[in-house]
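Predict fold of Signaling protein; 274 aa.
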Amino acid sequence: AKAEGRNAFRFFDAAMDAAVEERERLELDLRGALSRDEFMLHYQPVIDLETGQVIGREALLRWRHPVRGLVSPGEFIPLAEETRLIVEIGAWALRRACADALAFGDKARMAVNVSAVQFGQPGFAHTVLAALCASGLPAHRLELEITETVLMQDAESLIATLMVLRDLGVSIALDDFGTGYSSLSYLRRFPFDKIKIDRSFIADIANPETAAIVRAIVGLGASLGMRVTAEGVETEAQAAILRNEGCGEAQGYLFGRPAPLAPAVGCPDQAVEQ
Ligand code: C2E
Ligand code: CA
Ligand code: CA
Ligand code: CA
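Predicted 3D structure, encoded as tokens:
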């Protein structure tokens, strides 16, 4: 039994080593990914629920790994944040998204996700301004999506950065609304332009209790003068309920999957079997 335990431990040990090695391998790959031009952005349309028109797009990062294939952000953004590589990757994404916003040839807004590590950088507002200037995209067409983790940082410099961006004319959206610990208190501290209702609420919207929460968020947005977008809309039934609750904008596989600007260059995110 003792030998068995020792073997199990060795096995566990080897598995740990493998995991550490795997992570180090990925970190090494990630460090070179930007210079090897392995990142790309997929764009997902944001729809006006009343007119059905595309009024915006969200830029979503993809990593074309030479061996692993297309790696989703959930798999590498945490590592990019830990290593602070996200600062450079995020600046690249901002420049790319601003340039592509014009290439789409319409007047839709471009939304870019910003990580807390990136937002906390002293030069962040300047990075945004540089991306706008280099592309020629009017500031009012750029929207930055931030989550609660951004707002948990040192409040004073944070509010200062938000104000600078605001003065430039850039919109700020509060992403994944309703999933954090204190979304409501953040709404009181800062006037966002938009609230994005997390897709977990939309997935469960057939449930009357969840629909009541969504209704309350839509009402909250209206009384605070903030636009409200529902994320992860996958069915016509969900869209109908959202329309009925007065939600203005929606995003989700029902309206369009994230896809590259030039479809010839890459493929849209694959349909996942339900
Ligand atoms: P997010 O900002 O909440 O983005 C929405 C996620 O939901 C995206 O996943 C999108 O592909 C997915 N999605 C859209 N419509 C539907 C739907 O109808 N059903 C379902 N099930 N999913 C849908 P993705 O692209 O894997 O991105 C995951 C997260 O990675 C994002 O969540 C965001 O937090 C982060 N991320 C993506 N791009 C960037 C970036 O450029 N910078 C930073 N800092 N984070 C990023
Ligand atoms: Ca987002
Ligand atoms: Ca979200
Ligand atoms: Ca999310």
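Strands lie at 39-48, 54-65, 69-71, 109-113, 142-146, 171-177, 194-197, 227-230, 249-250.
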